[in-house]
Amino acid sequence: MKHALIVAHGQPSDPRPAGAALEALAARVEAVLPGWSVGAATLAEPAAMARAVTGRSGGVVFPMFMAGGWFTRVQIPKRLAEAGGTGWVVLEPFGCDPAVHDLCVTLVREAAARDVILAAHGSFKSSVPSDIAAHVAGRIAGETGAEVAAGFIDQEPQLSTLTGRGGICLPFFAAEGGHVSDDLPQALAEAGFTGRILPPVGLDARVPGIIAAAIARGVPVCSGACRWAR
C-alpha cells in the first residue's frame, strides 16, 4: 500500500469544517486510486498533521494550494518534521497542474460565457500566484474566445475595481473558505458585477481524478517541472 497525504491551509478561525471537507476529498481521491491510502490534514487544525502521518511510513504530499511558495517549500516540510513524519515527498501544488488549467477552460465552455472574471487570491509578496492566474486567463480567452479579466483579493487589480462586467466569475480557489464565501462576493458587489459566480474550481466533481493522476505521477515540487512551483 502506497501512502498519500493531501494538505491544505484550512480555516484558522474554525478549522474542523475545512478539515472534514478535506478528509471527504481524500476519500474520493482514494476511491479512484487503487493501491493507495490517502489521508488529509489542514495546517490550521491542531494535531491534524500528526494524526495523518501516524502509521504511515512516508509517501507523497499533495498540496491543495493554488501556487507554490513558502507553504509548499518551507511550511509543509517543517510541519511534517514536527509531526514526526519521515520519508515524505512534497508534490507540485494543485493550482500548478495543467489539468486544472484545462478544467478552468472546460468550466467556461460549459457555462457558455463570453465575459469572464477569473478571481484569485494573489499576493503582495510574490508574483507567482498572479503569473498562474494570468496564464489561466490567457488560456481561457484563447481557447474559448471569451473576454477574460483576472482580479485579485490580495493584489492589483483588485476585484472591486473590475467595473462594468457581467457574465460569470470563476473563483480560482482550491476550496470554499472565507475568501470565496465573503470577500469575493463583497468585492464583486462593489464593482457592480451583474453576472453569476461559479463554485471554486477545487470543488468540481472532476477534481478527485485530477489529484489522483497527480499523485500517481509523483512529480516533486522542487523538481523544476512546474515553472510556478518555487
Would you kindly provide a written description of the structure presented here, covering whatever features stand out?
This protein is globular. α1 (15-31) packs across α7 (207-217). Helix content is 40%, strand content 17%. The mean pLDDT is 92. It contains seven helices and eight strands, in the order βαβαβαβαβαββαβα. With 230 residues, the chain is of the alpha/beta class. It has a four-stranded parallel sheet, with helices on both faces. The chain folds into two domains: 2-95 and 204-223, Rossmann fold; 97-203, Rossmann fold (3-Layer(aba) Sandwich).
Topology:
Elements: E1 2-8, H1 15-31, E2 36-42, H2 48-53, E3 59-63, H3 70-82, E4 88-90, H4 98-111, E5 115-120, H5 128-144, E6 147-152, E7 168-171, H6 178-191, E8 196-197, H7 207-217
Parallel strand pairs: 1-2, 1-3, 3-4, 5-6, 5-7, 7-8
Brief sketch in words of this structure:
This protein has 230 residues and is an alpha/beta fold. 40% of the residues lie in helices and 17% in strands. It folds into two domains: 2-95 and 204-223, Rossmann fold, CATH 3.40.50.1400; 97-203, Rossmann fold.
At CATH level 2, the architecture of the largest domain is 3-Layer(aba) Sandwich
Task: Indicate the CATH class of the largest domain.
Answer: Alpha Beta
Mean pLDDT: 92
Number of helices: 7
Strand arrangement, major sheet = 2-1-3-4
The count of domains is 2
Relative helix content: 40-55%
Supply the helix-strand structural class.
alpha/beta
C-alpha Rg (nearest Å)? 17 Å
